Amino acid sequence: MPKSKLRKKVQAQHAHEEQVHAVETVPTESPKWLAPVMVANFLIGLIWIVIFYVSQTVYPISGIGAWNMIMDLALSQWALALRQSGASSLKSPFNSSI
Question: Rounded to 5 degrees, what angle do the CA atoms 60, 64, 70 make?
Fold first, then answer.
């Protein structure tokens, strides 16, 4: 006796679900150098802006004036970008494909 179309669909669906669950990967870790570089960028940016304000806008680089604040922001934003790139390499256990 031939199988019904519904039974074939159900069997195909179960086979597909088994394949999807069998392919789950282990979350990758961020590189070991990421956290120290990120923290170093934050600290260098903090020290940069403190020196800028304490020296009354003369140092760390006297020739560029207020652009020293842009240097601080660039270092801080780079640290944030590194954080985001490290976080995106980790897979969340809550994102499951159905």
Answer: 80
**Domains in the chain, number:** 1
Tokens at 96, concatenated: 């499951």
Could you tell me if residue 76 is inside a domain? yes
Q: How far apart are CA 39 and CA 42, in angstroms?
A: 5
pLDDT of residue 54: 92
pLDDT band at 47; cut points 50, 70, 90: very high
Which range of residues forms the domain containing residue 38?
31-85
pLDDT mean across residues, the chain: 77
